[in-house]
Specification:
The structure is a homotrimer.
Chain A: H1 9-20, E1 30-38, E2 46-56, H2 60-72, E3 83-87, H3 90-100, H4 113-122, E4 131-136, H5 145-156, H6 170-173, E5 177-180, E6 183-186, H7 187-200, E7 208-210, H8 215-218, E8 226-227, E9 244-245, E10 251-252, E11 257-258, E12 263-264, E13 267-268, E14 273-274, E15 279-280, E16 285-286, E17 299-300, E18 305-306, E19 311-312, E20 321-322, E21 327-328, E22 333-335, H9 338-347, E23 358-360, E24 370-374, E25 381-385
Parallel strand pairs in A: 8-9, 9-12, 10-13, 11-14, 12-15, 13-16, 14-17, 15-18, 16-19, 18-20, 19-21, 20-24
Antiparallel strand pairs in A: 1-2, 1-4, 3-4, 5-6, 5-7, 22-23, 24-25
Helix pairs in contact in A: 1-2, 2-3, 3-4
Chain lengths: 397, 397, 397
């Protein structure tokens, strides 16, 4: 009925082994405990999940402890589905504390973070019904708000790769809510109380109405990362250390982001990825899979410049330049002079470039070292070798 | 001196008839009771009006009750002007409660909202001087802050059509204030107290300085409407259900908005209207009457796409496409090949299109099914029949 | 050990004379007293300085009093460096109050603001360690957070000219922090407390992560200036009275801004300056020294229009028009018809314009009355005389 206090790290390991060798036990690929925000009108509706910590392909011992703590608190863990979610109670916390006993003293700072989670819960007088645990057994379509958030955390904390997580159906699972600071409100609750709140002067200051929260509501960026306005980065985006997001026309959607230090003054649409050292100029747009790329997600290489107010609708390699104000789409016809084509071929030894003078954008996708321009005397879109150095992979050549 | 408690719905109707048959009585086209925010320095200055409910060409019985309740509270209602505004007091609330007595019990949810307003007021110990009632007798230039707000609410709650309300002079009536959450502050008050507040650590976090509040400070959108950042939609804008406003370069000004579900990632300037199913791409600009359209307000039809960073300076019909990055103004010269002209004519049977190869933008305004492009081999702006289906009005043809 | 209460304005003047004639005394070019925000983890780290008042080439008598008050409080003021910063204490406040005695009664409103600062401090039970005084003896590289903020205030309160202040190294001095309203938090503090705060529901709503605060956190704009969204103007920007900053794609960086009433719907990058009566259209970009202007800071003259989504990469004179959607860079080849060249020359009597038909953008920089367009039938970028009147300086001609 309860886990007895574990008195040594060896005993802890034994406990884990006992748990994981249960018939039917499945190692979760991800798990975590969240404080959830419930609907003001409909308390059964989960509006948001706040994780102090997520585990992503790691800390399998803690997972075993949590599963055992649930079982001993009379909660059957169902391993047959792709995910399992349950409300935890004080009994669960007790059990987990007993199991973690050998680690409690040293669980501070970066050490034993799952133990810290349980310690924080054990310090509360009564944890009530607002703490939920979620396990993902595989990367299937998420089936709960907690599962969606766990995956958004994995993306935004760089524990999972962009585009590599299954978020199908997430929009259907999340509720559209009014965000007041970090607190989500049901729109219907506001409607029902509008008259009273408006007349009493207690109507809240709503920051946004959306299904997703903002990145900064949940994620602490690296010390050298800057986000000058929280609304510009959606939860589920991924920002590598050193990225700067300016507040003009910029926006980074979920499942999109940067792989290294990038200056972002434009839009990185859902599924688009930008490499280290690149620069998304003021108002520049990288099209997303839902807007003009025919489902072809765009990657931008390293050290590439997208000029102010440019539009890029195809993948680009390293060391490219798209001039300010121009648009390069898969169907754009682009002229290349023979001598420039030779230089481009040299910078892209693996590309098989036809010998001709007009290319479609799609034929140049992913190539390195291209400078896209519009000739202001003829209106022609042209490409030539950029002035930026392309670092060839020496092992390959 | 007071309205006696009305004991039946018939007696209520009689009361209304008595009031509205007074000599000189005029039915208000709109009315409402607002909690007002007054200047911190100058309490005579109304900075904002918060309506729990507005009435727009409706609820004339409640209007009669409110007028009677004012009269019995010794406030003469002046029907001779285009609007009337007064501070209400406890006496007024008492009178209105007495008149509404037959409806008080059932006034919850969506029922009897004016009664709910009076109930909320009657629950306050003392309503003080911050509640004001406003009646508009015609759609004249607004003469008070309360009248301006009543009209902005009418637009933003879709009770009035865009461009159909007289807001002349509104900028002159509203004060430029510092918004801290939902609270407006006089700039002079901040100036006078700057030293103390800065040193005491009580200087407020100012969200904006403007005459207008934001849409979300006053309006609850439909369940499937999303506004990812409150600053992007000004009070007085109108958003049809299903509209999504992204946080990049978007902005929807007052007296502008959408008529159906629209994805908004660009700018809908004052007086511009976008039809159902259309898409205002990232950074796309629809020019407003004050910026380049020569006072010709722009309507965009249904199912039309404005590409990323495009600029549209003329009205467009249904099923059009403006390619990413291009600019179409009234004076833009646009080339149309004869076979494309024939297809455009077919999609626009009522248009009288001259048989020629170069058109000015203005000659194509409001037409359906046009795809505007820039030929990237010649720089020419061209138009052709878009690939989108135009649904012709069968009754007419 | 203490300043005795000064009993007359003559005695005050004598005190100032005594102080300033000390051997080694140096008049500070700027000074002020700030409430500082210290690191939550590392209290030695100053995260922000809040000035109720700054003095910039003014109020040298108050400077002398402050220096004397420090000296009498056993704080040696070091005049040998370019700046001096110290924590003040109650003793300092006492001394300064004693010196300011003749002015205390009349120090309200706009009168004797430094005395108001001391009064506010003297009203506190204990000023603790969070008040710091800073003196700048010359405009050298700032060496402290307080010095950086003093200079940012000077720019944003229009006490110093844009581009004329030495802010070298400011980015190295300021800490990158999470801004929660007006309060900066160390990122490491959030990291250390993330688990507890997330589970307790006390994790703060972070508005931004940046080294700089926002303009409106510190500065009260003129009565006719509007900033519709605080994130759009960085601390250190300068906005002349009557400037309006819309919330779409706009942004004004530090050390950039306007010299008169300007409508800003686009980006004014660091070091760019826009003259009175000009209009930065929706999404228009003025490039900064770090992005494409080769270090040549851009000034835009008066009454010039930058069309929606245009990009301007070179300085422009008065009465110019850059059409919506076009890009003009230093290297852009621009065609000018002979008759238009004559008109441009007439509008710019001092310019030495070569007689030719194709110019580079750089050759036209700073000229008045030019209208930049793209011919939509040929794709050529052309310039002609704009329809706007250029006011020539009569004294010169």
């Amino acid at each position: 009925m309860a886990i007895e206090t574990v008195t040594s790290t060896d005993a802890f390991k034994q406990l884990v082994t006992d748990v994981t060798s249960q018939a039917g036990y499945k190692e979760p690929m991800a798990f975590g405990i969240a404080r959830v925000d419930r609907g003001q009108k409909n308390a059964e509706k989960i509006l948001q999940a706040n994780f102090g910590l997520i585990n992503w392909k790691e800390n399998f011992g803690s997972a075993a402890v949590f599963i055992k703590a649930l079982q001993e608190a009379n909660c059957d863990v169902d391993f047959s589905g792709t995910e399992f979610v349950a409300t935890i109670n004080d009994n669960f916390v007790h059990n987990a504390m007993a199991a973690f006993a050998p680690y409690v003293a040293e669980a501070t700072g970066d050490a034993h973070k799952n133990v810290q989670v349980i310690k924080a819960l054990s310090n509360m007088a009564d944890i009530g019904k607002n703490f939920r645990i979620v396990f993902l057994f595989e990367d299937a379509n998420p089936g709960s708000v907690e599962a969606v958030y766990l995956k958004l955390y994995a993306l935004s904390q760089s524990k999972a790769e962009l585009r590599k997580i299954n978020l199908n159906g997430a929009f259907g699972i999340l509720s559209n809510v009014a965000w007041v600071g970090n607190t989500p409100y049901e729109l219907d609750y506001l409607r029902e109380n509008e008259i009273e709140m408006k007349l009493n002067g207690t109507y809240p200051a709503v920051d946004a109405v959306d299904k997703f929260p903002r990145f900064l509501q949940h994620v602490i960026p690296a010390d050298n990362t800057r986000i000058l306005e929280a609304s510009k980065v959606r939860m589920g985006a991924q920002l590598a250390a050193g990225t700067t997001v300016m507040p003009g026309a910029s926006y980074i959607n979920f499942n999109a982001g940067t792989l290294g230090p990038v200056m972002v003054e434009g839009r990185i649409s859902s599924s688009a990825i930008v490499g280290a050292g690149s620069d998304v100029g003021g108002g520049a747009s990288i099209l997303g899979v839902l807007s003009g790329t025919d489902g072809n997600p765009i990657s931008i290489g390293e050290n590439t410049l997208l000029g102010a107010n440019s539009v890029t609708g195809l993948p680009l390699g390293d060391a490219c330049i798209v001039d300010a104000g121009i648009t390069i789409l898969a169907g754009t016809k682009i002229k290349i002079a023979p001598e420039e084509l030779a230089k481009i071929a040299e910078a892209n030894p693996e590309a098989k470039l036809e010998y001709k003078t007009t290319f479609k954008g799609a034929e140049l996708q992913g190539l390195n070292g291209i400078h896209f321009r519009q000739d202001s005397t003829t209106g022609e879109i042209i490409a030539r070798r950029s002035t930026r150095e392309v670092k060839l992979n020496v092992e390959l050549h």
